[in-house]
Design goal:
The protein contains 10 helices and no strands. The chain is mostly helical. Helix 1 (2-12) runs antiparallel to helix 2 and helix 2 (17-30) runs antiparallel to helix 3 (35-47).
Length: 180
C-alpha cells in the first residue's frame, strides 16, 4: 500500500509524470501481478497524450485483473471500469469504433454510472449511426439508470440530440406519473 499511497499522493500534488513514473516502474518491478500499477502507468501516459503507449499497460492491467480474480485488490476493483474506458479511448483514437464499443460495454457492465463511458457510448452511437434508444436500452433498463442518463444528457448539452430517444425509452418502460 505504500507505493499506491505514494503514487496517488504525487498525482494529487501535481508532481511531473516523469517523477511519478519512476515510482510506478518500481512498484511494477516489485509487484508485477498487481493490476492497479499498470493502470496507474497507463493513466500517467494518458496525461502526456501518449495513448498508443498506454495500450499495453491497460491490457496488462486487465490481464492481471482477470487472472487474479480471487485475490484481486479492492483498489483495482474500484478503477476497473475506468481501465476499460481508457482502453476504449485508445481504440477511439485509432478509429476502431467496434472494438471501442466492446470495451465501453465492458466498462459499463462493471459500473453503469461511469459518466466517461456513457459519453464514449454516445460518441460511438453517433460515429456508427446506431439506434440510440436500442443501445442505451441494452445497458440501462432500471428506472434510476434511465433517469441517470436523462440527467447526464440535460447537463451535457453536447448530447441533447438523444434526449427525445432516451425520454421515449423511459416512457416505454415506466409510467411517468408514478412515484419516482
Amino acid at each position: 500500500d505504500v507505493y499506491r499511497n505514494l503514487i496517488v499522493a504525487m498525482n494529487l500534488s501535481n508532481y511531473s509524470s516523469y517523477e511519478i513514473r519512476k515510482y510506478i516502474e518500481k512498484a511494477i518491478e516489485l509487484f508485477p501481478e498487481l493490476p492497479d500499477f499498470y493502470a496507474y502507468y497507463a493513466e500517467n501516459l494518458f496525461k502526456e497524450n501518449k495513448f498508443s503507449a498506454a495500450k499495453p499497460f491497460l491490457e496488462k492491467a486487465i490481464f492481471w485483473g482477470e487472472k487474479n480474480i480471487s485475490n484481486n485488490s479492492s483498489v483495482y476493483k474500484n478503477i476497473e471500469s475506468e481501465v476499460y474506458s481508457y482502453l476504449a479511448d485508445v481504440y477511439i483514437k485509432e478509429n476502431d469504433f467496434a472494438t471501442s464499443k466492446k470495451y465501453i460495454t465492458i466498462s459499463l457492465a462493471k459500473n453503469k454510472f461511469n459518466k466517461r463511458s456513457v459519453k464514449q457510448l454516445f460518441f460511438i452511437i453517433s460515429k456508427m449511426n446506431l439506434d440510440c434508444a436500442k443501445e442505451i436500452g441494452i445497458v440501462y433498463n432500471e428506472k434510476n439508470e434511465i433517469k441517470f442518463i436523462l440527467e447526464l444528457i440535460l447537463f451535457e448539452n453536447k448530447y441533447n440530440c438523444y434526449f427525445k430517444d432516451i425520454l421515449n425509452l423511459y416512457f416505454d418502460c415506466y409510467d411517468p406519473f408514478s412515484d419516482c
